[in-house]
Request: fold
Amino acid sequence: MTDQNVLRDALVEYSDRRVGEQEVLAALRSATPASGRRARTGWVAAGVLTVTGAFVAGLTLLGGGSAAYAVTENPDGTVTVSIKDIAAIDPANEQLRELGVRITAVPMTSDCTEKWEDRVYRGTDYTTKGYPRASGDSVTFSRRIPEGHSVLVSVSKYPNRGTGLGYTAPVRNPAPSCVLDPADDPEYRSPRTNP
Reply:
């Protein structure tokens, strides 16, 4: 009986993997390549499978229940980031670097003393056209981040912080290693009022 279960599980896993591969190939076939560009289809397929593999790696890091992080390159050139565990910051940053995206994930802590506010990009040429855009537990960013700057994605380890994910305007590099939790920042607190 155990051999049958192992075989069944292996067949289900193989079938699921083939369905995913077939979906990628169908998407590639539905695209109408310009004449003379047929040789690039293989490279495009390899790129799609690489990005898909990187996304799956992000999903399975740290195993168990929900994904620890995900970095997804979208067809329109934007990038969607989701980081649910402070321990996933380093692998998420590695993937962002590999994709050439100027986004740096940092922990949101109660004792961060690094100042970055005076290094925020103030140029008039920076437009995001509706980005960043938060949706559920992820944020989608435009790749139009000025050279020499990074958008900071802050990850909280504290409960009751919504998704635990925040972001900044572009900040001149080098990016700080942390961001002060707004709940612990005196500048964000309301002044006390007397009753």
Residues 2-30 form the longest helix (29 residues). Residues 43-184 form one domain.
